[in-house]
Design a protein that fits this description.
55% of the residues lie in helices and 11% in strands. By secondary structure, the protein is of the alpha/beta class. The longest helix is centred in the middle third of the chain and has 21 residues.
Amino acid sequence: MKGKKILIADDHPIFRRGLTEIISESFPECTVMDADNGTSAYNTIVNEKPDYCILDINMPNMSGVEVCKKVLSEKIKTKIIFLSMHSEREMIRMALLSGGSAYILKDNSINEVVDCIKKIDSNEGYISPSLANIVKGIKDDENRKQNVVDLINNLSKSEIKVLKLVVQNYTTKEIADILFLSDKTIENCRSRICQKLKLPPRNNSLLLWISENKELLSTLNNL
Protein backbone atom coordinates (compact mmCIF):
# COMPACT_ATOMS: atom_id res chain seq x y z
CA MET A 1 0.00 0.00 0.00
CA LYS A 2 2.99 2.33 0.32
CA GLY A 3 2.67 5.44 -1.83
CA LYS A 4 -0.91 4.72 -2.88
CA LYS A 5 -3.68 7.32 -2.90
CA ILE A 6 -7.12 6.93 -1.35
CA LEU A 7 -9.99 9.34 -2.01
CA ILE A 8 -12.94 9.57 0.39
CA ALA A 9 -16.00 11.19 -1.19
CA ASP A 10 -19.01 11.91 1.01
CA ASP A 11 -21.16 15.01 1.47
CA HIS A 12 -21.54 14.58 5.24
CA PRO A 13 -18.54 16.36 6.82
CA ILE A 14 -18.60 14.56 10.18
CA PHE A 15 -18.82 11.12 8.57
CA ARG A 16 -16.17 12.03 6.01
CA ARG A 17 -13.81 13.33 8.69
CA GLY A 18 -14.26 10.22 10.81
CA LEU A 19 -13.65 7.88 7.89
CA THR A 20 -10.62 9.91 6.83
CA GLU A 21 -9.10 9.52 10.30
CA ILE A 22 -9.66 5.76 10.31
CA ILE A 23 -8.18 5.30 6.84
CA SER A 24 -5.19 7.53 7.66
CA GLU A 25 -4.48 5.59 10.86
CA SER A 26 -4.89 2.22 9.15
CA PHE A 27 -2.79 3.14 6.10
CA PRO A 28 -0.28 5.77 7.30
CA GLU A 29 1.91 5.17 4.23
CA CYS A 30 -0.92 6.28 1.91
CA THR A 31 -2.06 9.72 0.82
CA VAL A 32 -5.69 10.28 1.86
CA MET A 33 -7.78 12.90 0.05
CA ASP A 34 -11.44 13.88 0.36
CA ALA A 35 -14.27 15.39 -1.66
CA ASP A 36 -17.71 16.63 -0.62
CA ASN A 37 -19.70 16.23 -3.85
CA GLY A 38 -19.81 14.12 -7.00
CA THR A 39 -18.24 16.67 -9.32
CA SER A 40 -15.36 17.27 -6.93
CA ALA A 41 -14.86 13.51 -6.56
CA TYR A 42 -14.78 13.04 -10.34
CA ASN A 43 -12.35 15.92 -10.88
CA THR A 44 -10.06 14.62 -8.14
CA ILE A 45 -10.08 11.15 -9.70
CA VAL A 46 -9.23 12.62 -13.12
CA ASN A 47 -6.44 14.84 -11.80
CA GLU A 48 -4.96 12.74 -9.01
CA LYS A 49 -5.65 9.18 -10.27
CA PRO A 50 -6.15 7.71 -6.77
CA ASP A 51 -5.81 3.96 -6.46
CA TYR A 52 -9.05 3.71 -4.51
CA CYS A 53 -12.11 5.89 -4.08
CA ILE A 54 -14.53 5.30 -1.22
CA LEU A 55 -17.60 6.86 -2.79
CA ASP A 56 -21.04 7.66 -1.36
CA ILE A 57 -23.80 6.83 -3.83
CA ASN A 58 -26.02 9.79 -2.94
CA MET A 59 -23.92 12.85 -3.68
CA PRO A 60 -24.74 16.44 -4.76
CA ASN A 61 -24.07 17.49 -8.40
CA MET A 62 -23.25 13.98 -9.62
CA SER A 63 -24.27 10.65 -8.08
CA GLY A 64 -21.71 8.04 -7.14
CA VAL A 65 -22.99 5.75 -9.91
CA GLU A 66 -22.55 8.55 -12.48
CA VAL A 67 -19.02 9.21 -11.24
CA CYS A 68 -18.16 5.51 -11.48
CA LYS A 69 -19.53 5.19 -15.02
CA LYS A 70 -17.54 8.19 -16.22
CA VAL A 71 -14.36 6.90 -14.58
CA LEU A 72 -14.85 3.51 -16.23
CA SER A 73 -15.63 5.02 -19.65
CA GLU A 74 -12.41 7.04 -19.51
CA LYS A 75 -10.42 3.93 -18.57
CA ILE A 76 -9.13 5.42 -15.32
CA LYS A 77 -7.90 2.58 -13.11
CA THR A 78 -9.24 3.93 -9.80
CA LYS A 79 -11.15 1.18 -8.00
CA ILE A 80 -14.48 2.31 -6.60
CA ILE A 81 -15.77 1.19 -3.20
CA PHE A 82 -19.39 2.27 -2.85
CA LEU A 83 -20.80 3.41 0.48
CA SER A 84 -24.57 3.65 0.90
CA MET A 85 -27.38 3.64 3.41
CA HIS A 86 -29.41 1.61 0.92
CA SER A 87 -29.58 -2.17 0.95
CA GLU A 88 -32.19 -2.40 -1.83
CA ARG A 89 -31.36 -4.94 -4.50
CA GLU A 90 -31.80 -2.53 -7.44
CA MET A 91 -29.51 0.08 -5.89
CA ILE A 92 -26.80 -2.53 -5.32
CA ARG A 93 -27.24 -3.89 -8.85
CA MET A 94 -26.86 -0.42 -10.42
CA ALA A 95 -23.75 0.27 -8.35
CA LEU A 96 -21.99 -2.99 -9.17
CA LEU A 97 -22.94 -2.90 -12.86
CA SER A 98 -21.57 0.65 -13.12
CA GLY A 99 -18.11 -0.80 -12.42
CA GLY A 100 -17.81 -0.68 -8.64
CA SER A 101 -15.39 -3.08 -6.95
CA ALA A 102 -17.32 -3.27 -3.67
CA TYR A 103 -20.50 -2.14 -1.94
CA ILE A 104 -20.56 -1.46 1.79
CA LEU A 105 -23.46 -0.29 3.93
CA LYS A 106 -22.71 2.87 5.87
CA ASP A 107 -23.86 1.17 9.05
CA ASN A 108 -21.00 -1.32 8.64
CA SER A 109 -18.44 0.89 6.92
CA ILE A 110 -16.25 1.60 9.96
CA ASN A 111 -15.78 -2.12 10.57
CA GLU A 112 -15.49 -3.21 6.97
CA VAL A 113 -13.80 -0.54 4.88
CA VAL A 114 -10.23 -1.29 6.04
CA ASP A 115 -10.64 -5.03 5.34
CA CYS A 116 -12.26 -4.16 2.01
CA ILE A 117 -9.32 -2.02 0.90
CA LYS A 118 -6.83 -4.70 1.92
CA LYS A 119 -8.65 -7.39 -0.05
CA ILE A 120 -9.06 -5.26 -3.14
CA ASP A 121 -5.39 -4.29 -2.92
CA SER A 122 -4.62 -8.03 -3.00
CA ASN A 123 -6.77 -8.36 -6.14
CA GLU A 124 -9.53 -10.12 -4.23
CA GLY A 125 -13.15 -9.18 -4.52
CA TYR A 126 -15.08 -7.90 -1.54
CA ILE A 127 -18.73 -8.46 -0.72
CA SER A 128 -20.13 -7.14 2.52
CA PRO A 129 -21.24 -10.27 4.46
CA SER A 130 -24.64 -8.72 5.17
CA LEU A 131 -25.21 -8.33 1.41
CA ALA A 132 -23.75 -11.64 0.22
CA ASN A 133 -27.08 -13.28 -0.63
CA ILE A 134 -28.37 -10.20 -2.46
CA VAL A 135 -25.17 -9.90 -4.51
CA LYS A 136 -25.25 -13.62 -5.37
CA GLY A 137 -28.83 -13.21 -6.61
CA ILE A 138 -27.80 -10.22 -8.73
CA LYS A 139 -24.92 -12.15 -10.29
CA ASP A 140 -27.16 -15.16 -10.97
CA ASP A 141 -29.72 -12.89 -12.70
CA GLU A 142 -27.04 -11.22 -14.82
CA ASN A 143 -25.63 -14.60 -15.85
CA ARG A 144 -29.12 -15.77 -16.81
CA LYS A 145 -29.72 -12.59 -18.83
CA GLN A 146 -26.41 -12.99 -20.63
CA ASN A 147 -27.33 -16.58 -21.47
CA VAL A 148 -30.60 -15.36 -23.02
CA VAL A 149 -28.73 -12.71 -25.04
CA ASP A 150 -26.24 -15.32 -26.28
CA LEU A 151 -29.08 -17.61 -27.39
CA ILE A 152 -30.86 -14.79 -29.22
CA ASN A 153 -27.63 -13.87 -31.00
CA ASN A 154 -27.65 -17.35 -32.54
CA LEU A 155 -30.90 -16.60 -34.38
CA SER A 156 -30.90 -15.60 -38.03
CA LYS A 157 -32.33 -12.28 -39.21
CA SER A 158 -35.52 -13.95 -40.43
CA GLU A 159 -35.91 -15.80 -37.12
CA ILE A 160 -35.41 -12.52 -35.22
CA LYS A 161 -38.13 -10.96 -37.38
CA VAL A 162 -40.56 -13.76 -36.52
CA LEU A 163 -39.61 -13.68 -32.84
CA LYS A 164 -40.33 -9.93 -32.71
CA LEU A 165 -43.84 -10.57 -33.97
CA VAL A 166 -44.40 -13.43 -31.53
CA VAL A 167 -43.30 -11.11 -28.72
CA GLN A 168 -45.99 -8.67 -29.94
CA ASN A 169 -48.59 -11.44 -29.51
CA TYR A 170 -49.24 -12.07 -33.20
CA THR A 171 -50.49 -15.56 -34.05
CA THR A 172 -48.79 -17.84 -36.57
CA LYS A 173 -51.41 -17.00 -39.22
CA GLU A 174 -51.09 -13.25 -38.57
CA ILE A 175 -47.30 -13.45 -38.83
CA ALA A 176 -47.61 -15.39 -42.09
CA ASP A 177 -49.89 -12.70 -43.52
CA ILE A 178 -47.59 -9.87 -42.38
CA LEU A 179 -44.49 -11.50 -43.89
CA PHE A 180 -46.30 -12.86 -46.99
CA LEU A 181 -45.30 -16.43 -46.11
CA SER A 182 -47.22 -19.63 -45.53
CA ASP A 183 -48.42 -20.77 -42.12
CA LYS A 184 -46.21 -23.84 -42.48
CA THR A 185 -43.11 -21.68 -43.08
CA ILE A 186 -43.81 -19.70 -39.90
CA GLU A 187 -44.44 -22.89 -37.93
CA ASN A 188 -41.09 -24.29 -39.11
CA CYS A 189 -39.40 -21.01 -38.20
CA ARG A 190 -40.92 -21.06 -34.71
CA SER A 191 -39.70 -24.61 -34.31
CA ARG A 192 -36.15 -23.60 -35.26
CA ILE A 193 -36.33 -20.67 -32.84
CA CYS A 194 -37.36 -23.05 -30.03
CA GLN A 195 -34.47 -25.37 -30.86
CA LYS A 196 -31.92 -22.53 -30.87
CA LEU A 197 -33.33 -21.17 -27.61
CA LYS A 198 -33.06 -24.70 -26.17
CA LEU A 199 -36.74 -24.83 -25.28
CA PRO A 200 -38.64 -28.07 -24.63
CA PRO A 201 -40.83 -29.38 -27.51
CA ARG A 202 -44.14 -28.09 -26.15
CA ASN A 203 -46.68 -25.99 -28.06
CA ASN A 204 -46.54 -23.14 -25.57
CA SER A 205 -42.83 -23.27 -24.70
CA LEU A 206 -41.93 -20.18 -26.75
CA LEU A 207 -44.77 -18.12 -25.27
CA LEU A 208 -43.76 -19.16 -21.75
CA TRP A 209 -40.14 -18.22 -22.48
CA ILE A 210 -41.23 -14.81 -23.77
CA SER A 211 -43.34 -14.25 -20.65
CA GLU A 212 -40.42 -15.17 -18.38
CA ASN A 213 -38.03 -12.85 -20.23
CA LYS A 214 -40.41 -10.03 -21.20
CA GLU A 215 -38.54 -7.30 -19.32
CA LEU A 216 -35.19 -8.30 -20.81
CA LEU A 217 -36.56 -8.66 -24.34
CA SER A 218 -37.90 -5.09 -24.21
CA THR A 219 -34.36 -3.77 -23.68
CA LEU A 220 -32.58 -5.68 -26.46
CA ASN A 221 -31.68 -3.69 -29.58
CA ASN A 222 -32.16 -6.62 -31.93
CA LEU A 223 -35.72 -7.05 -30.70
